[in-house]
Design goal:
The structure holds 3 protein chains of 3 kinds.
Chain A: E1 4-5, H1 8-14, E2 22-25, H2 35-45, E3 51-55, H3 64-70, E4 74-79, H4 84-91, E5 99-101, H5 106-112, E6 120-125, E7 127-128, E8 134-135, H6 150-155, E9 158-163, E10 183-186, H7 193-196, H8 207-223, E11 231-234, H9 238-253, E12 258-265, H10 267-274, E13 278-286, H11 289-297, E14 301-303, H12 306-310, E15 324-327, E16 331-333, E17 338-339, H13 355-361, E18 364-368, E19 372-373, E20 376-377, E21 379-380, E22 395-398, E23 401-404, H14 409-417, E24 422-423, H15 425-436, E25 448-453, E26 459-464
Chain B: E1 7-10, E2 17-22, E3 27-33, H1 36-53, E4 59-65, H2 70-90
Parallel strand pairs in B: 3-4
Antiparallel strand pairs in B: 1-2, 2-4
Helix pairs in contact in B: 1-2
Chain C: E1 4-9, H1 13-16, E2 26-30, H2 40-53, E3 60-64, H3 73-80, E4 87-89, H4 96-112, E5 121-122, E6 125-126, H5 129-133, H6 135-139, E7 147-150, H7 152-159, H8 171-183, E8 187-190, H9 199-212, E9 216-219, H10 225-231, H11 236-254, E10 261-262, E11 265-266, H12 269-284
Parallel strand pairs in C: 1-2, 1-9, 2-3, 3-4, 4-5, 6-7, 7-8, 8-9
Antiparallel strand pairs in C: 10-11
Helix pairs in contact in C: 2-3, 11-12
């Protein structure tokens, strides 16, 4: 027996895909992904309509999606993150039904609980055998962890594995087992390696970013959380990565043995593992080749599912055990709400990803962002879009001062004792305005182009069309 | 001062702007900005103020703004105008 | 207080906006090496506008101008002086007449701009063998000269030797320049440490310069600022000792005694001067008042 089918067309037919069904994709191939476009092209050729795409993220490479929505091949999009290219079209109002934004924990939560059933899941794997055991760890298009694909692989009615490297059964070191897989398709390439993972991720050279990273490490020390057993998550953004690098120096110097580091994994976090700063890496997504290589070969580097990472509908998830998370922000408001969905012009150019999940779970959630970017103030009266509610944000750190959520008087006291530059969030707003001037308000349209679901499924904000 | 020739100043880096000037029969200022809604009017005013200070009454001035503060816009406009004079003198 | 002087490029708005938050006591907005030849005019106008419109708080702004040989230094001064930067830093100063030349032109611009004559200070950058040998004359060349600053990168090129981390090759020059400055009664600032990733090397180099008598050190990266600030700040023990000096002086005065000793050591003028300096620094750092006055 073999589950190998000759073509994508055959796989789609075999799965019984019909008009109006929901199909899922995962984004480990990031901006190098060929699979989403490839599948939708086939679906359009078969004349199918009204499909709903449930993708863990949409990148600029998925631009063909714009035309497919115009042709009504795709009429629904559910995702955790949307890049600027598709985001701008959505913000322009091309889709009748609002896009549903979830978080990296909320999405698998909704799939696991059956709230958002998936008819056919398409799993892109850089290696697979003909029975469907598959992984992203090896092969010419290796992308590392397949964490975001695991929930739909387990729960979708049908699962198609698409690979560009077929190996003899059984695949050693599979990430997703054959038990869930209906058929396997071999293609020439699942992605462009250059867009999947960068060779190296570089920390920022921007002096302000470095200054903030230094301050962030001081804040982590002042919080009292940096001790043996410490757990940490950071993004791959400039200042966040720099903070990880500086944190490593301190942990090595003070011989602090942390428990785990989490998040999108970069070579810098692998360095921390190898330097003995942490016992384990918990990995839902690799960002560079060093991380991929580490996942493939270091038994301390663990591949975890998105459910395990962040779902609020499990008995526990990893974010519940986090001490500190460092997060970015486009805007923060005086109630500490954070926007990572829309830019200064109201255009969709991001999404929560794991932002809300980590913020909810961590003992200290810290936003690091420059007080202004290109004349736009970070701190405003009301964020354009609430991505993460302020009640889960503890600290907003900028180069011109650190604001602590009044809910966290304990942290505020600790920071003051450590001599950190504490200011109120209102003062941060005033400082930004003194530099930039007062911005004229942005006017948006009245059509809802997207709804933002909190990790629990509750809609916490809506995004309107741009004018 | 008079805008005598095409000239440019500034960059497209964040927090900067690129200013292009060329001779024209009347005074035209064209602004595009990543923060057009929020600061488009402020940028235009900073440009017109600077042109007035320099005594410029004619010329086409195009600003491509990447979030520059007013004092940066003013510096770039002044630099472009001065270059437009100088280049003729040097020719 | 000028423990650190951080170099920042003069034509980069994004960096100038944040000049005051990088932790340095002073920043040097650079019109010289950090600006390409075809952007000198743009940088000059940008720095002028920054001085005019931006608020740098307590951070001192120094402007490094183009060298005398360039022909651009007068234009730099024409634009910058009217906006009253604290200090002008001329480069490759090799003899007292370089300073006299610049000082005379600054006076001219000050008159034209109707700002108090002599209010602009000069910190010559000494980075040639001639400059080192003429250091004392440079330091005494004009009352505007508030300090001298040694730059060892260009200097080692001029000396035809290799610049090393340990700096043995510039030991003489550093000693000579700081001695010249102290002889002239002004401050001396040390060359930057160029490996921005070597924190321990930076600390050692700064400690060495402090040991020679330097007041502070230039930085080429914001990441160097904290360490250099720390090295050139008085320690808690220094502050404690300085307080004690003034305490025993006050006690002696109250008892009508002339000679004062502390821990078996005579308190003479150099000790008092040093203690006063330490307490001034402590006050500036927010570590208690300099109440000896």
């Amino acid at each position: 027996m073999s589950k190998l089918v000759k073509s994508l067309e055959e796989a789609i037919k075999l799965c019984g895909l019909k008009d109006g069904m929901t199909i899922s994709f995962h984004h480990h191939l990031r901006n190098g992904d060929f699979v989403l476009n490839m599948v939708l092209k086939e679906i359009a050729a078969l004349g199918l309509k009204n499909m709903t795409i449930n993708a863990s993220a949409i990148f600029d490479i998925h631009e063909p999606l714009i035309d497919l929505t115009k042709q009504k091949v795709v009429t629904g999009i559910e995702t955790d993150y949307m890049g600027r290219t598709v985001g701008e079209a959505i913000s322009g109002g091309i889709l009748e039904k609002p896009v549903i934004f979830r978080t990296h924990g909320g999405r698998p939560g909704a799939i696991d609980t059956g709230r958002t059933p998936i008819d056919v899941a398409f799993v892109a794997a850089s290696q697979a055998d003909d029975m469907g055991n598959c992984t992203g760890k090896f092969g010419k298009s290796a992308c590392g962890s397949l964490g975001y694909a695991m929930s739909e692989a387990a729960h979708a009615k049908k699962v198609v594995v698409i690979t560009d490297e077929l190996v003899p059964y059984p695949l050693n070191g599979f990430s997703i087992p054959e038990v869930n897989v209906d058929c396997v398709v071999q293609v020439d390439a699942i992605g462009n390696p250059a867009g999947i993972v960068s060779g190296t991720t570089k920390i920022t050279r921007d002096p302000v970013g470095l200054k903030m990273a230094d301050l962030a490490v001081q804040a982590i020390i002042a919080s009292g959380l940096l001790k043996d057993g410490f757990s940490f998550q950071t993004g791959a953004g400039g200042a966040s990565l720099a903070a990880a690098v500086f944190l490593k120096d301190i942990m090595v110097q003070k011989q602090i043995k942390g428990s785990f580091v989490m998040g999108g994994i970069t070579g810098y976090l692998v360095d921390m593992l190898e330097a003995g700063c942490f016992r384990n890496i918990m990995d839902v997504q690799c960002f560079d080749l060093k991380a991929v290589d580490s996942l493939a070969h270091d038994p301390r580097h663990l591949e975890v599912s998105a459910t395990h990472y962040a779902s609020p509908f499990t008995k526990s998830s990893i974010v519940d055990s986090l001490d500190v998370v460092i997060l970015g922000a486009t805007q923060v408001d005086t109630n500490f709400n954070v926007n990572v969905h829309t830019n200064s012009q109201g255009i969709i150019m991001g999404g929560s990803g794991g932002h809300s999940d980590a913020a909810a779970g961590a003992k200290m959630s810290m936003i690091i962002a420059p007080l202004s970017r290109a004349r736009m103030s970070l701190v405003v009266d009301r964020v354009q879009t609430i991505s993460t509610p302020g009640k889960t944000i503890d600290v907003v750190l900028t180069q011109r001062g650190i604001a602590v959520n009044p809910r966290r008087e304990d942290l505020c006291e600790k920071f003051k004792t450590a001599g950190l530059p504490i200011v109120t969030i209102e003062e941060l707003k005033a400082r930004a305005e003194a530099i930039n001037g007062i911005a004229q308000p942005l006017k948006t349209g009245t059509k809802t182009v997207a709804e933002v679901e909190y990790r629990t499924g509750e809609i916490i904000d809506t995004i309107k069309n741009i004018l | 001062m008079v805008i005598k020739q095409k000239a440019m100043a500034g960059t497209m880096e964040s927090s900067d702007c690129l200013v292009y000037v060329e001779p024209a029969a009347d005074l035209q200022v064209e602004v595009s900005s990543v923060v057009m809604v929020q600061f488009g009017a402020a940028i235009k005013k900073a440009t017109l103020d600077t042109l007035a200070e320099l005594g410029i009454k004619q010329g086409f001035i195009k600003i491509q703004d990447r979030g520059a503060l007013d004092c940066v816009v003013k510096a770039r406009v002044e630099t472009a105008v001065r270059r437009s004079e100088k280049e003729v003198q040097n020719a | 207080m000028r423990r650190t002087m951080l170099f920042l490029p003069g034509n980069t708005p994004n960096i100038i906006i944040n000049a005051d938050v990088l932790g340095a006591d002073s920043v040097i907005l650079d019109l010289e090496d950090a600006v390409s030849p075809d952007q000198k005019d743009a940088a000059r106008i940008l720095v002028r506008n920054a001085l005019k419109y931006m608020n740098f708080g307590s951070c001192e702004i120094i402007v490094r101008i183009n060298p005398l040989s360039s022909g651009m230094w007068k234009e730099d001064l024409d634009e910058i002086i009217p906006l009253r930067p604290s200090v002008i830093m001329p480069t490759k100063v090799s003899a007292s007449y370089d300073v006299e030349h610049i000082a005379a032109y600054i006076t001219e611009v000050e008159k034209r701009a109707a700002i108090p004559e002599g209010s602009t200070q000069i910190m010559p950058l000494i980075e040639t063998a001639r400059g080192v040998e003429n250091a004392f004359h440079i330091a005494e060349a004009d009352k505007r000269v508030c300090a001298v600053f040694i730059g060892c990168e260009d200097l080692t090129a001029d000396l035809r030797c290799v610049r090393t981390k340990t700096g043995t090759e510039v030991f003489y020059a550093r000693s000579r320049v700081v001695c010249a400055a102290r002889a002239a009664g002004i401050e001396a600032y040390d060359t930057p440490f160029t490996d921005i990733n070597d924190k321990e090397g930076l600390r050692k180099d700064a400690e060495f310069a402090k040991g020679l008598g330097y007041t502070g050190k230039a930085c080429i990266s914001p990441r160097q600022v904290d360490i250099v600030n720390e090295v050139f700040s008085p320690s808690d023990a220094d502050i404690e000792y300085a307080r004690l000096v003034f305490k025993v002086i006050a006690e002696a005065k109250a008892q009508g005694r002339g000679a004062v000793s502390l821990k078996g050591k005579m308190i003479d003028k150099p000790i008092v001067d040093r203690a006063a300096f330490v307490l001034e620094m402590a006050k500036a750092l927010g570590k208690g008042g300099a109440d000896h006055e």
